[in-house]
Amino acid sequence: MINVVRSLVFYAGYFLAMLVSGVFFLPIAPFLPLAGRYRLLNLYNHFLVVWFRVACGVRYDIQGRERIPEGPCVIQANHQCEWETVFLQVMKPPVCTVLKQELLRIPIFGWGLRLLRPISLDRSKPARALKQVLTQGVARLGTGLSVLIFPEGTRVDPGVRKRYNKSGSVVACRAGVPVLPVAHNAGERWPGRQWVKRPGVLRVRIGAPIETQGRTPDEVLAEVEAWIEGQLQEISEVPRPLIR
């Protein structure tokens, strides 16, 4: 029962913060340069990271912040729920996120996303989406933005494993920037298919940048997947299966 109450309190703050952002931040953001938009709109993400901890009884164990490179990189992380999409925005801003285009249609939330120049994909056209990721991803990195790509392509529940996609590694190799691997167990605290949140320790591990110069995307992807899955074996409360 206490988790239900905590979750209700959390969502009250969640939607209130979204409303405040829509009323006070969104009208201003279009008139700011891109860097200014990130700083302003990221206030919402900063609030959610803190509010989730306070309202839902979650403790953060985040290791490896000192490994985050100063320049642009391709961030690759496992994808379990909404939390990591929020946290990774504040971990290394400014960051361009590869996402499904349906998210841009969500009132307020989607409007804010549009202003941050994401790479929005039509997943019903995979060939076109892949080309879009490669061309726009390299272009965004060239402007100094980092790029966030979830190699699993969609949310995957804890205890389930899906083959990784190499598009993020291809982008990193073409742009000559490192890949920053991130592993977490956020889906155990913020279940992707349930609204009731669970208290406990949310663990995040940030790896050393993986260099791409002179390497193939397959080599880079193999190292990214091995590192993330190895970390998940250590930090997950739900056992990790072998990939089929």
UniProtKB/TrEMBL annotation:
Q: Identify the domain of life.
A: Bacteria
Coiled-coil annotated spans: none
Q: Does the keyword Transmembrane helix apply?
A: yes
| Signal sequence, renumbered to the chain | none
Please name the SUPFAM superfamilies in this protein's record. Glycerol-3-phosphate (1)-acyltransferase (SSF69593)
What is any one GO biological process for this UniProt entry? phosphatidic acid biosynthetic process
The UniProt entry, under PANTHER family, shows: 1-ACYL-SN-GLYCEROL-3-PHOSPHATE ACYLTRANSFERASE (PTHR10434:SF40)
Q: Which UniProt keywords apply?
A: Acyltransferase, Membrane, Transferase, Transmembrane, Transmembrane helix
Record lineage? Bacteria, Pseudomonadati, Pseudomonadota, Gammaproteobacteria, Oceanospirillales
The protein, known as? 1-acyl-sn-glycerol-3-phosphate acyltransferase
User: Transmembrane segments in this chain: where?
Assistant: 12-32
Q: What molecular function does GO assign, one term?
A: 1-acylglycerol-3-phosphate O-acyltransferase activity
Q: Does the keyword Phosphoprotein apply?
A: no
Which pathway does UniProt place it in?
Answer: Lipid metabolism
Matching entries from CDD domains are given as: LPLAT_AGPAT-like
Q: Where is the Phospholipid/glycerol acyltransferase domain?
A: 73-187
